[in-house]
Write a structure and sequence with these properties.
By secondary structure, this protein is mostly beta strands. The protein has 10 helices and 44 strands. The chain has 3 domains: 307 residues, Thrombin, subunit H (Beta Barrel); 158 residues, no CATH class; 124 residues, no CATH class. The longest helix is centred in the N-terminal third of the chain and has 12 residues.
């Protein structure tokens, strides 16, 4: 597919980059006249995929095929509030009347093209509810009203519930401050529409000791708590928290800006969504793993500083196939543990048929809460472990192999083309092709990511479909169905960002490169893989896998006697991943060069080559972290270290 190059500025770095959401619309006449503007950041279209198992042959690209996990559904609440006919203890006016400033701020954020997509805000409750509960402190009784809440006490348990209403609210979630919960406490939230309750526990608590509940459909939200009585006469483990805020997730009915915001000159959201492809319209004839892939991608809701946001993420498989719920998304989505703790993931958000109806969010399986394991601006990744996972999930394979020019890439994501006047859509499919010479290259963004450092990112050109705000963090797949990156955004002309379907030649897609991300998350995806430290050099078999661990303690009688661990010098920054250096006495004086080469296809072994410029005593040990096999060479103090070329060093294993 040929793409015209416009002004030369498109291929140069734009240091003063700013962000425009793809949903941002400019007047079409203006869109055709700003052709000399420098490229800007945005969020737009993407890839195609076909999956196949990770090759078993020795020397195949590092990666892992997908696996499927089945889990048991959590218990449901007793719906105590309904049994006691509990009225809301707090009722807030509609946001259109009681939170106009918050609504306007949300829309201005999105219209300004800031990332990630903002989809909610919070308000303080008129009067916080201080909750202090102790099992066994009251006699058994059926559900009844007690103050502003409802309680029930039975043999071995205490239940409590309270309710909040925000008129006309689309979705709601509650904030609990100063949370103290015993491990056995069970909590649920549910709306007033009869939808199933969402179970959670203290695993959602953030480092500061507060907690955001999962969201449920409005306009009412009920919080229910069950505390078990202590067994064997043990001291009662009570619960305490202050219910002080409510967050509203804005729905598609929130149209228009108020007058004050309108005067800022903000533009209307994009209606240029004609190229969107419903994910349900894609068959296995186009995409071999499409049926499984749908069960690996989720829509992410989370809270940052009291505001709600939305992105996309995907499950990753680890090499043992353990089913540990690892999730990959973008750093510009989730970069703190507080945000990860508030995470709510909706799975299987797909239409009933090609271009059919989308389901209600509360009818979907979901996960709530996560631990942030690693994150970085460098390749814009966030890697999390979910606190829970529903049944029938699929874990995506991945690869650290280089992505060749013009490779077709694929993605499912949850775009929001009409934001802020609409909500994220069900899964949409898009395709791009890799370009090593992008038409557009952006520079630093407002958070400090350097988009111009192309080795950290995968630039690709639109082919089919598109992404929009809400697609951030969605996994990008190569033709083998393996993850090679996750969506950062788009880089192009302001018009291309604003009209991703009509002007698809005026922007490129940018994903964080999984090969760059991998070393930071290898310890989880390949348990036992090498972790570099002050005494350990990690050498790759395949890019980023850190398969070989090298250590070299030394000793010498010279200079009054010295001994210690040799200090590694990794050479990855120079493109050398299969070898490295060690120094003993001074970092500007390297003593030892070692490399490990893959000779498996030739003689079934990894080869170790060693060369040194020292006569110190030393022991060099190379450990294959995948098989546990080791290779060792020693040298006596005072003897020059001989060169080694051992082509039978380590037998090839899995």
């Amino acid at each position: 597919m040929s793409r015209p190059r416009f002004a030369s500025s498109y291929s140069s770095v734009f240091p003063g980059a700013f962000r425009l959401a793809l949903g941002t619309t400019l007047a079409l006449t203006a869109a055709l006249t700003l052709m000399t503007a420098a490229p800007v950041h945005g969020e737009s279209a993407v890839p195609r995929f076909v999956a196949s198992p990770w090759p078993a042959a020795v020397g195949a690209p590092l990666g892992e095929t997908g696996i499927t996990l089945r889990r048991v559904a959590p218990p449901q609440p007793a719906r105590l509030a309904e049994a006691a006919a509990l009225a809301p203890f707090a009722v807030l006016a509609p946001a259109s009347a009681g939170a106009r400033d918050e609504l306007d701020a949300l829309k201005i954020w999105n219209l300004a093209g800031r990332n990630p997509l903002k989809n909610g805000f919070s308000r303080p409750l008129p009067e916080p509810l201080a909750v202090r509960l102790t099992p066994g402190a009251a006699a058994e009784h059926a559900a009844h009203l007690e103050g502003r809440a409802a309680t029930a006490v039975g043999q071995g348990w205490l239940r409590w519930a309270a309710r909040v209403r925000v008129d006309e609210a689309y979705r709601l979630r509650l904030h609990l401050a100063r949370v103290r919960l015993p491990a056995a406490a069970q909590l649920w939230v549910y709306g007033g529409d009869g939808a199933p309750g969402v179970a959670f526990g203290r695993e959602l608590a953030a480092p500061a000791g507060d907690l955001w509940t999962p969201s449920v459909a409005g306009p009412e939200i009920t919080l229910e708590l069950r505390l078990p009585a202590p067994a064997g006469g043990a001291a009662a483990a009570g619960a305490a928290f202050d219910l002080d805020r409510v967050a509203e997730i804005v729905g598609p009915e929130r149209l228009g800006l108020s007058g004050a915001a309108r005067r800022t000159g903000a533009v209307t959201p994009s209606a240029d969504d004609s190229c969107l492809i419903d994910g349900s319209c894609v068959s296995s004839a186009t995409l071999g793993i499409i049926d499984s892939y749908r069960h690996a991608v989720g829509e992410l809701f989370f809270m940052v500083d009291g505001s709600g946001f939305a992105c996309t993420g995907g499950l990753l498989a680890d090499l043992p196939g353990s089913g540990t719920p690892y999730l990959l998304t973008a750093n510009h989505c989730i970069s703190t543990q507080a945000a990860a703790s508030s995470l709510q993931v909706f799975w299987d958000y797909t239409t009933s048929s090609c271009n059919g109806a989308a389901p209600a969010l509360d009818s979907l399986p979901q996960s709530d809460g996560a631990t942030l394991l690693a994150t970085s601006l460098t390749s814009d990744f966030a890697f999390l472990q979910l606190a829970s996972l529903p049944a029938n999930r699929f874990f995506l394979g991945w690869t650290t192999a280089a992505v060749a020019d013009r490779t077709v890439l694929s993605r499912l994501s949850h775009p929001c083309p009409g934001c802020p006047n609409g909500g994220p859509l069900s899964q949409a499919y898009s395709a791009t092709f890799r370009t090593v010479s992008p038409v557009f290259v952006c520079g630093l963004d407002q958070d400090g990511r350097d988009w111009s450092n192309q080795p950290d990112f995968l630039y690709s050109a639109p082919d089919r479909g598109a992404t929009f705000p809400g697609s951030s963090g969605s996994p990008e797949l190569d033709p083998a169905g393996l993850v090679v990156g996750q969506l950062l955004g788009t880089c192009g002309s302001a018009n291309g960002n604003a009209f991703p379907c009509l002007l698809s030649s005026q922007y490129d897609l940018v994903d964080g490169a999984f090969a760059v991300t991998f070393p930071a998350i290898a310890r989880w995806l390949i348990p036992g893989s090498c972790v570099a430290d002050a005494a350990t050099l990690c050498i790759d078999d395949q890019p980023g896998d850190g398969r070989f661990k090298v250590q070299a303690p030394f000793h010498t009688s010279q200079g009054g006697g010295l001994s210690g661990q040799a200090h590694p010098v990794a050479l990855g920054s120079l493109g050398v991943d299969r070898g490295g250096l060690f120094w003993f006495f001074s970092p500007d004086n390297p003593e030892l060069l070692i490399k490990v080469l893959n000779g498996c296809a030739l003689d079934g072994h990894y080869w170790v080559f060693l060369s040194a410029g020292t006569n110190a005593g030393l022991t060099v040990t190379v450990t294959d972290t995948r098989t546990g096999k080791t290779w060792t060479r020693t040298n006596a103090d005072g003897t020059p270290v001989p060169s080694v070329q051992d082509t039978g060093a380590l037998a090839c294993g899995q």
